[in-house]
């Protein structure tokens, strides 16, 4: 069952990037992140009350609280970097870099959870790494820098690093807590962090200038994120992080398909094979579990 939740997470995650990109055409990405987190928080707490896990919050240990908070802070940092990168960069370039967090997550899962790292998973890492490099070829990066500056690449890389930390910290934090409750707590941390940054950076006045159409897309991206999170952490609770995370990264297929439909972004001659290598590497991580 956890595999189905993992694929559900991939689908909703793929939609999130497209909906968010539509919502930050003219809207500041930090302000948009703060607004959409409200939607995710509402969504996640509704699920907590549906499953009836709200009463167990008093039973959480200090260790669980610490790791849930740290995971929330890491998630907030990843979000802020990711949506800033999406705002100033090309979706087809930003998303592959963000998804490369799979590699670091697998290595950290091996170190902290002693999850198996075989020749098959090693091959998968290589394929994903090579595929990512092909999708962000130098020519494309240079073109993006000419248009929007170098910032998008830095933000995309930071997003991947924080996303990896989020998975590991989240895995530790939800060992003894109902997955929906864990997601809700983490979301509350992200919300606080996002709004503090909005006011500290003096961007609160931009909240009143968000176009209604973009506000709609921001809210829809929040709903998609809520669905992705609930599926992801439910899968992560029952399944190995080294497999759940790669499945979740298949969201790149959804994102690229919709980026072509919505933004007319096309894959280059190198990025096409790169995408194929990423998908192949991901399936190499999944095959042992499916055949078990």
From TrEMBL:
Is Transmembrane a UniProt keyword of this protein?
A: yes
- Annotated signal sequence range: none
Q: Which InterPro entries match?
A: EamA_dom (IPR000620)
Q: Where are the transmembrane segments?
A: 30-52, 64-86, 106-131, 152-172, 184-202, 214-235, 241-263, 275-291
The similarity annotation says: Belongs to the EamA transporter family.
Q: Which residues form the EamA domain?
A: 1-135, 152-286
Question: What keywords are annotated for this sequence in UniProt?
Answer: Membrane, Transmembrane, Transmembrane helix
Quote the protein name from its UniProt record: Multidrug DMT transporter permease
